[in-house]
Amino acid sequence: MTGVEIAVGYVCAYLVRKARRAGQQVDVEVDRAVDAGMGRVHELVSSALGGDPSLERAEEQAEAGEVSERTRRRLADAVDEAADRDTAFASALQRAVEQLQEVAGAAIATEDGIAIGGNVFIRAEGGAVAAVRMGDVTMGNPPVPGPHKT
Hints:
Low-confidence stretches: none
Structural class: mainly alpha
Number of strands: 0
Radius of gyration: 21 Å
């Protein structure tokens, strides 16, 4: 995942959190630091993009509770383009994202991904199966196709 995708993830998360907590006071220090960091990333992106339709659409969708993957892609493209044009913006955004990741200790997943911050250990014993995520699993010997004798 690129720095721009991470920044867009933070911007969208900020917009959704802001919409959900409108009027509520943040009472935990970590939440304050995370909110401040996300606000800084949002401020940088908003300043660079101005009235870009992708940012406006993300704000609208955030008020409804979720920013679509399509809007995230469009916003990422707009941020990428702005970073290509303005190296000072690109550097400031990278620093803000790194600082936020340090404070939040967070991992962000997009689409159908799974984000895990910290250490993960997965182990299967005795013929078992283990995974963070898996689809349908059949354990044992699968039946042999074809005619069966009784």
